[in-house]
Amino acid sequence: MASELRLTTLANNAGTESVDTTYVINGSAKAHFHYSGTANVIRESLSISSISDDAAGDFTVNISNSFADQYYVFTGHSASPAYDIDGTPTASAINFISRNTAFTKTDYAQNCGSFMGDLA
Amino acid sequence: MASILKVDELRGIVSAGDVTVTSEGGAATQSLQQGLAKAWVGFNTITSTSIFDSHNVASLTDNGTAYTTINFSSNLNSTGYSLTASAGSASFRICLDTVGSNTDLTGSCNTYATRTDNGTGLDFDKGSATIHGDLA
Q1: Which of A77, A102, A76, A100 is nearest to A89 (CA)?
Q2: Res B85 pLDDT > 90
């Protein structure tokens, strides 16, 4: 049976360390992914419904549980020497670009991202 | 009225590794465990590779200029974890990317810093890395 606790603060048993539950909820990543652009495979994820391979070095990450708006924080990382976000993210999707040293869009085997912010 | 729960460990009832939290807007719930960063580290590699602050990071290995291995204390359960990282240099714009994407291990991961203007590897003043994923 599911149960729910409504709390202001979480503390260890000794009471020497504590955290406001606001930080637990707001400080948790709401989504993350590890995606292979070369194999077009999601290797691990949280709250990611799919990733669409749009073109070489160009893919769209679709989020399962949408954010409250498009102004969430996204941090990305790639095996590529350059990467960026294309266009304007929406509450449920973001377009990630990986590039080679000539800044040409190129697939790489390792692309990761995490999302912080308020869910809808 | 404020409430405080004093515990040393949180476990789910149905599944020990699954405690859910309700979204800010109340429209969804999601796993608390999976949203938590499983490791993070702030470090520099300029003079000697050193850690400013960290969580679940046992050590760093200096593999040469620009090339650093982050060693975890508690391993991830697969190599598919999400690594996000960045680094800064007082002299150059740099990009911190991933080395050996096919050889990353559950107990460590590799980062490599390059100048964005010419692709040359270099050490940096301040780097940050965060790991999300499932622990073993």
Answers
A1: A76
A2: no
B5 CA: distance to closest CA in chain A (Å): 5
Over 80: is that where the pLDDT of A1 sits?
no
In sequence order, the 6+-apart residues with CB closer than 8 A to the CB of B15 are none
**What is the value of ipTM here, to two decimals?**
0.74
B49: burial class by Cβ within 10 Å (0-12, 13-18, 19+)? middle
Q: What are the chain A neighbours of B34 within 8 Å (beta carbons)?
A: 46
B47 Cα to chain A: minimum distance (Å): 24
User: CA of B28: which chain A residue's CA is closest?
Assistant: A65
Of B24, B134, B87, the closest CA to residue A68 belongs to B24
Mean pLDDT for the stretch of residues B112-116: 84
